[in-house]
Every structure is written in C-alpha cells, then in structure tokens.
UniProtKB/TrEMBL annotation:
Sequence similarity: Belongs to the universal ribosomal protein uL4 family.
Domain of life: Eukaryota
Gene Ontology annotations for the cellular component aspect, listed alphabetically: ribonucleoprotein complex; ribosome
Species this protein is from: Amorphochlora amoebiformis
MF (Gene Ontology): structural constituent of ribosome
Gene3D superfamilies registered for this protein in UniProt: 3.40.1370.10
Basic and acidic residues bias: start-end ranges: 192-207
Pfam families: Ribos_L4_asso_C
Domain Large ribosomal subunit protein uL4 C-terminal residue range list: 53-127
Lineage of the organism: Eukaryota, Sar, Rhizaria, Cercozoa, Chlorarachniophyceae
GO biological process: translation
This protein's name: Large ribosomal subunit protein uL4 C-terminal domain-containing protein
Region of interest (Disordered), ranges: 192-237
Amino acid sequence: NISGVEVASVDTLNLLQLAPGGHLGRFIIWSEAAFNKLSDIWGSTKRESTAKKGYKLPYTCITNSDIGRIINSAEIQGHKSLNPAKAAPRTHLKKRNPLRNKAVMDSLNPYAVEMRKTEQMRQQAAKNDRKGILAKRRAAQKANRIQRKVNYAKIHTDYTVLTKSDLDQKIASDAAERKRLIEEEAARKLAEEEAERKMLADKEASKKAKTAAAESKAPVEEDDEDDDDDDDDDDDE
C-alpha cells in the first residue's frame, strides 16, 4: 500500500520493473528465499538451471570490453589474413523538387508558407464573393466592347478613299522624287571625283615645281665652289 513500491515474484521477473527505461539503479529489496531461488532459476556459467531445461548463464568471451582498442591494436592490424581497408562509398543526396515537395520549398523559401496561406485566403474570399467578381468581369467586358466600337468608328472616320487620278498623281510625284534623289546623288559623286582629280593635279604641279627649283639651284652651287677654289689658288700664289 506504499506509493512507488511494487512487489514482484522471483519466478516472473520483469526488466521494466527492475530497470525502467533500461537504466539501472532502482532500489530492490530481496527476500532470502527469493535470492536463493535465483540460482535454481538461472543457474550459473558452469551449472545448468533446474527450472529451465538446458539453460546456462552466458559468460564473457573476452576480458577487455574495449572493442575499438582491440581492433586497432598492432597484433590485429598487422595480421596477414586481414583484408585491406575499404574506402567509404560515395553517397549522393537525392535532389527533391521544391515545386512538388512543400518541406523542401519551405527550407528554401521561408515565406512560402505565408504565400500559400495568402493564396488560400484569396481563393476562399473569391469563392465567397463570386457574385461581385462576376459583376466586375461583366463590367470590364462591356467596357471593352464599347471601346472596340469607338475604335472601329474612328478608323472609318479617318480613312480617306483615293480616286484613280489621285493615285496616278501620287505615283508620278513619288517617281519624280526618286529621280531627283538619284540626280542629286550622281551630281554629288561627280563633284567629289572632280575635287579629287583637282587635288591630284595640284599635288603633281607642286612636285614638278619643287623638282625644277632643285635642278636650277644645283649649278649655282657648283660655280660657287669653283670660285672658292680659284680664290684659294690666288692666295697660295
């Protein structure tokens, strides 16, 4: 009748009662008869149990429970029959489509949840106010029809019909304009060619004048040199 105290039979022991959650440390009070009966129920590592046929307590196969230290020891790692270490396989993460997976979309775009809520609220409001939306749509369609009629009437008002004589006159004026443009282009090209020929002639004339001046100047210099030689001879005498 004490709260928190449980009574269990030694023949039907329960691990959840002895160690709740797999954690040891619960305070247990054994009776002498129950403690002595444990050997008959479970036996030992050398003697079989009398209550369970062929049952014997398991015994430890190793003296050192540090498996990692045993595997990494020099005796194990240096054995000839030991297979070489295998490289860890490459793992590839599966790419998920954020347009179909809401969790991935929420991780990429935290505002996606709010956008979905807003869209759902808008759809719900549109569903509730269907008559108002239809009225606005019909008003817009009516305004478009009126605008189309206005545009059509404006096109017919601004359109002018040309007679055959007007059309012939327009064709003749266009031909005259094209002819004038062609003549202006030909005159411009002719003027450019004439200017280019004149420039070449001027260059040729200036070149000839320079050549003639150089030829006329050369004998004078020779005569001067001869006079200088005569003066030198007179001085020597």
